[in-house]
Amino acid sequence: MKEVTGSYSPRKLEAGVQDNWKRENTYARVQALRQDGKAFFFVDGPPYTTGHIHLGTAWNKIIKDAVLRYHRMRGANIIERAGYDMHGLPIEVKVEHQLGFTSKKDIEDYGIAAFIEQCRTFAVTHMEIMSDQFRQLGIWLDFDNPYQTIKEEYIESAWWAIQRADERGLLERGHRVVNWCPRCETAIADSEVEYWDETDPSIFVKFPITGRENEYLVIWTTTPWTLPANVAVAVNSAFTYARVRAKKDGNEEILWIADELVESVLKMGRYQDYTVLERVGGNSLIGTEYASPLAGHVPRQTEIRHRVVAADYVTLENTGLVHIAPGHGWDDYLVGIREGLEVFCPVDSGGCFTPEAGAFADMYVRDANDLVIDTLGGYLLARRTITHRYGHCWRCKTPIIYRATAQWFLKATEIREPMLAEIAKVKWYPEWAGSARFHDFVRDSRDWCISRQRYWGIPIPIWQCEECGEHTVIGTVAELEERSGTEVADPHRPYVDEIVIPCPCGGEMRRVADIFDVWFDSAVASWATLGFPREREAFDRYWPADFITEGQDQTRGWFYSQLGASTVAFGRAPYKSVLMHGFALDAEGRKMSKSFGNVVTPEEVVNQFGVDVLRFYVLWANAPWDDLKFNWDSVKTIHRTLNILWNVYRFPLPYMVLDSFEPAPEAGGLWDGSFVRGNINDMPKEDRWIVSRVNSLARTTAGDMREYQLHKVTRALASFILEDLSRWYVQLVRPRMWLEEDSPEKRYAYETVYYVMRRLTALLAPFAPHIAEEIYGNLRLDGDPESVHMLDWPEADDLLIAPDLENAMEIVRSFDDAVATARQAGRRKLRWPVSETVVVTGSDEVNTALEDLNDLALNRANSRTVRVVTGTWDRILWQAEPVMRAIGPEFGRDGPKVKALIEQADGTALKAAIEREGKAELDGYEITARHVTFAESLPEGVFAAPMKDATVYVDVTLTPALEAEGYAREVIRRIQEMRRQLDLNVDDFIVAAVDVADERVASLIAKEEWQKEIAGEVRAAALTVRRTDGERPAEEPFALEKDWDVEGVQMQIGISRAGE
RNA sequence: GGGCCCGUAGCAUAGCUGGUGGUGCACCCGGCUGAUAACCGGGAGGUCGUGCGUUCGAAUCGCAUCGGGCCCA
Fold it and tell me: In this structure, which topology does domain A616-796 adopt according to CATH?
């Protein structure tokens, strides 16, 4: 053990600890230490390798690290690797920006091979940056050997899964309406669509009914460009529709509109008058045929037989009739499938109309809106604009379109029931994350479109025969090499695109052009991280994961993608327990975003306060599953807490070093707390108490950890450090540290402090691993493990937990607070002793506590006596006050007389009489409890304050003896302060002189008893106390001389180091 | 529009199987001073988002509504 002089400087401390971990290879050694323990398989949710980590990413990894460190200390053999998600459109878009590309054509011209190399470089570079950042946060995951979605063996894991899907008939090629980004020219997942407001046309259009003169169905749309693809109109069979004769500018026409919407629609179309001709149910309209108002401009439209169909999703908004284009809408598509409608989609991958769109060919769809509207001519009933939420590509922010395309699907809807059953088997923290949130999401989920028409991703391993159309799904690289006879250097595009497999029919099979949705990459992480299918052994032993934890946004993300892929491949969930954590928000509870300028980065926090403060803060601020509202003040509070921990730790060290204290070791030179266990019954109460507290702490934290109540654990730790250790125990134990001679009391104090710090650092290790390591490193014995992270988690020692003592101490602390309050009211400083302190209570617990811990109470109260009185204390006087509301009616005329009698009576005696007999007599009048109230009247010099279940009375009246001690204490304190100014060592001796300008006070403290006391306390070899007239005795120069005003008495004090 | 979560003093947070609202920070006043760019005590500060309901009684239960978050449409 060494003395520690420096104050808590986290950055320096943490750099030192991390250097040491690196030099000693501590992480690997901790892992090795536990390799025979019970396996605990953890899968790291892979962050995407773009840019830097943000607060949420840091929080995520900090939770993981704290949990895993805890499990390691509990003896678990943690199976883990860090992981990274490295494919996908975001990186393609970044690289496109770097290269100045605007379309897929630019990429093709540049060369796919060169392009994906750029993507690879980008991903790997950023992965390394992020790994360094995570390491700096003290995250112990395997960053030297992370799983990477771009590695050949990882790609194989995905291929293998999709092969299984195909074998089970869950892989399907289909024409589906998908979210389509016209810039990226690819389908994008629902989860990749971002919504924000967009202003669009809002038009009402008349569709002419076939065979009726001048009669129309009125529909509404915000996407005029989808009208060339219209094939039907949907009505709700539950609604009533009106056939209306409407007049405008002398013309008449017949319109069909939902009955309740007639007024508003006609107003919109500026009709002057109308008559309802008939009202029919929606069913009556079904089958009605009509023509496209664009028939003359889109040739295909003249061939389509348009008709009215029913759809119950039609709402009573706008016109109550909905335009259906199965090529451009998901609901439309489903209606189309049901009704056998044609799926017409005259839009290409770049969002431009194809020649099939006739007059609109080659136009970009959103640009064509105006032309479509113009072309409608008289069929346009009204035109407005609308601002509504519209979807955009999450990467390039282009408004998406819906487009019917050929895609590959995983038939998630077919395995919905098994997925729901699996969710119920998983242990969710909190419970509702699974039972409500995730359950509902999966219940409402659709088939998963897994194909993308891009470059930087896992190629879909489907080879299709150009001759016969048969397809085959490849599961491994080896299988591909065998079947193609070609060596596979890199399973990425464009290299795999060139591989040809001979088809049994004699034709050639070529790979389909698509790559996987990047969500499918991470979906296979649970077995990919184990190297499956290449490696089987680890998979058989560890899979599925014991635990994963990610943010609530991953409900639809990684929780879902993994469950889907795993249910397809193995028919079960890939994880046994899931902790869903919240989102990191700013102090106002708003999302952190660059445009708002409210982003707080982990680096900022670390630069100011260090890693441990950040870690402890995010684990402490709220429950893991609630959103984190970042708050600098709270960060400072945590910094202060750790600073206090540091001060508590270093305060006893100088004394221990001075005394060459060594904690009692066990055989083998390691420490296990047996001294405290063996001597507990002889140790002072406060030692037994803090030992009990730290064991209670171990017990509650273990319980909370089991439920991942990380906030409760960190709060309990912080509270222990501040309340129990710093504000109470250290205050109590200090005098024992200062004892000169060896004594059991001092030994117990050292052993207790040591015990508490050893247990506390172990409990802190998962949450604040650096400061715990630093403190442990100084305290550990030669036989102890080198790192605090190699220790076993401290189990609560039930024999050392004393609930009664803990309760009693709570009472004494309440007493202590009350004494301070009462003294403040009586203006008597704590330094000045008082004669008597009385606690009035009816509580046995209070009585027992103050009896058992009387020495402590005396000490804390700085009182000659502390005693408990049950019932009433005889020194309390009572003042009787008449209650006129009762006296008036009863005594009538004599009321004023009774009032005067009561006021003049001895209230204390009156109260006693009434309590004893229920009544008292005053000058012949019978007085009962009704007629009088009593106010407490404290004797001169007594002050009261409430405490737990009791009231404390402090008598601050001075006597010469008390005064002498008070002044002596004042002198001691001032000399100590002067010692400090001279920067003397704790064991230096001094010579001192005190010149007091007050005869009485001088004689009080000049008494031998107090002079000795002062000299002893301040280590004075020689001390003079005398009365002066305020004249400085010039013949005695001291190293330091000061004038003091002590409670109005002038004193001159001079001190020097002895022998100088 | 739908699902889930959250909404408590200036800020953050506890209480949420119903019984007169705790804690920390900040603020004001006082104390302490052999942990000192620390520490302790006291005070002020709340219609527990809003409204309605259930109940003898609601921050706590129900319904509605507003605001924030994540997700879905």
Answer: Isoleucyl-tRNA Synthetase; Domain 1 (1.10.730)
